[in-house]
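I hope you will forgive my troubling you with a question about protein structure. The full record is reproduced below for your convenience:

——
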Amino acid sequence: MKPYFIGSEIYRGSSYGDWHPLHIPRVSTVMDLTHALGWIGPAQYRTSPRAKPKALTLFHTPDYIAALQQAEARQTVDDATRIRHGLGSTANPVFPEMFRRPATGAGGVMLAAELVRDGGIVHVPGGGTHHAMADYANGFCYLNDPVLCLLSLRQLGLARIAYVDIDAHHCDGVEAALAGAEDMLMISVHEEKRWPFTGALEDEAQGRALNLPVPRGLNDTEMRDIAQRLILPALERFAPDAIVLQCGSDAIEEDPLSRLALSNNAHAAIAVALAQLAPRLIVLGGGGYNPWSVARAWTRVWGALNGLSHDGPLPAHAEAILRALRWNRRAAGRSPPAHWFTTLNDPAREGPIRPEIRARTDHLRARLALASPNVAKITRPGQRKTA
């Protein structure tokens, strides 16, 4: 069965505002690049439905959904709504599609859950908004579609569901939702001392989370070591029925909102490795604020999931898509390096494995070693095992 790609035209031209980091095109560019490369057949593409308000209450409160709809309709919020629900803030501004756009992302991930009911792979680059809470917007995220995806998989009867997040920012909204959920396992690799300043090494979300904060400059060698020594063994032990991967591209070196130094080789490698570990894989987008690195990374991930790659210069029509992008708020956008236009693959960014990363990985491996394989509860060293 070939993977499915879920997209929507709502992302074309929709923006949080010219001043916002999410003023850039992202999903629409991935859609265009995959078609330009001939990497997506008609049977693989699905248009994302817009989730209905009632469906969104699988996680979000009815009052919050009503407030979000009303804010879009009125294009303004009062002070009480801003304080109560986080709408109309600098991070989560009022904009024309502020309900319809995230509801489309949510509808896409819920459709993805249906599509993998009997097995398979789905890529939903419009998903990955992992900061939203049940009753308020947070960190550019109005709805928490990863949580809606996980809960939808649970509703389909899947007994063990894993969530892996490699975004530069910790998935605080997902962790808050999953704490104590015995059928879930969450693994997050994120930059330390970076907003939202959660996801400490000792934070285990009542036994359901492995949080690995990493220092600035995380390189491909270190990420590969983390995958081989922590992520993959933890998943093999948990034996999930389904894996949801949040594949935020803000951990790539050129992103302006983090100080990590991965190449998109790391993202493709993680996606392919996870596809081997469960009969169902859903790959989401997430963070990413450099239009070229986002488009190239998520397009490359889609190709990797299909066993496709493009190592040489891009064909002229694909290069033209990348050359048409604009990023006027950053100096790099005014004079981008040539490979942002001409190639899909980043150069490898290898380097030494720093002692603090090894030590933190070893700490989590020790917790994993204490977990019961039947329940896969993650515990601290010295803590009693859970039967």
